[in-house]
Design a protein that fits this description.
With 488 residues, the chain is α+β, with helices and mostly antiparallel strands. The chain has ten helices and 22 strands. Helices cover 27% and strands 25% of the residues. An eight-stranded mixed beta sheet has the order 5-4-8-2-1-11-14-13, with no helix packed on it. A hairpin with a 5-residue loop joins β9 and β10. Keywords: Cytoplasm, Hydrolase, Metal-binding, Metalloprotease, Protease, Signal, Zinc.
Amino acid sequence: MYTRTTIVAVTLLALLGGCTTGSPAPEATPSAAPATGLPGEYAAYAAGLSTPVVDSQYPEHGTDAVDVLHYGLELAWSPTKRVLTGTATLRVRPTRDAASVSLDFKPYKITRLSLDGGPATGAVTAEKLVVQSPVKADVPFTLVVGYEGKPSTTPWPTTTRGDEHPLGLTVDSAGGLWTMQEPFGAFTWYPANDQPSDEALYDIAVTVPEGWSAVASGTPQDQQGDTFRYRSTVPVASYLTTLAVGKYRTATATGPHGLPITYWYHADQASYLPMMKKTAEQLEWLAKRFGPYPFDAAGVVMVESPSAMETQQMVTMGDRFGQMGPRNFDGTLLHEWAHHWFGDAVTPADWRDFWLNEGWALYAQRLYEAEVYPGEMSPAERIAQNRELDGTYRKQYGPPGKPNAAEFGNTCMYTCASAMLRQLHQALGDDRFFALARGWVQDNLHTQQSRASFTAYVNRKTGHDFTALIDTWLDSPTTPPETGPLPN
């Protein structure tokens, strides 16, 4: 995600110094999914296996009692009535025996509720759908929820961000829809285990009136009449799903290795299309440094939001960035695409490690901007000003490794974490640093990771113990001293 405060502050981010080379350490073993065989039809959803944990920052959202394997969403939107009608079919693996099942969900009118084909009893209270049916650990079940009603958002955690807005499904001024939902908010349009540690597969179908279009995360499937379909065959965290409905225009392009790219924009946003079309070039730039693009389709959709979001395979860009012009749009779009490696393909298991998303995305953005816009500031000026900002943010927010849940997404999680990566880059040099970055993504593809696993991976991959460097940059209340490159 991109923030208004970040736009001003991160343009001063320091870039690395020297370039040393060396041989990488042996590859680490990817983290494993739960050692659980899935019976019968559920075996088809094995890629959706996760190990859910209770989130340390927002424990009221999500649960570690269920692992959703697959969401099948059949939705219909009426712009005139402002009513969303849906049927959600969830394939779920319970992680323990329980007398009931709980999911995050807004209080829509429930029109149908069944579990494994039989009627079930349940109700939505305080943004929780509780189904009163006993379940057993590792015995999957299918839950079907029919619902309808007028969408409503949920409040953002208290924050001083400049782009804060209500989270979840938003009805725009023309009767269309858009959503942004970091750190939560997917539950405003479908029943969800709304936390990052439980990733799942998705099939999303949205029916809209003639002349309207529906856009969602995932790979576009064949359109059937006024029903638009999207499929995610690799796991997606709920905060990375998206839905947008409007009278969109569309354009297509081809990215690296034949990657299909789709752009969605409104008639009054036609001037943004050339900016959106930088996607193919940006994905090529990122792939050269961080490895192949991790998904089989890409796209960008414009919405009314004041922010931007790395929603999986379909970046959601707020209209404000188009209004700010090509330079800001370019940096922001690159930032969101970088997240597809760092945040989407490899996702933090807990919002405490939000820095693991934003530090990498911001550092990638700064490397790109230094190359594409070299005259904006000298490397020395960037280093000096970034260190000054680092100290200011640590004093204001605390260090990035110890976030305050009431200050979600504060600028320290971006700037200070990216400064830590600059120090790693400076210590390792280009060859070893980019080998580390590529390995982190490829070896941990489509898994949920943590600070501990990142530190362990860095140490194994490089053959050096960087624990103290990482801990100091993540935990120090003041800006750590500069360090030099490792000896050859």
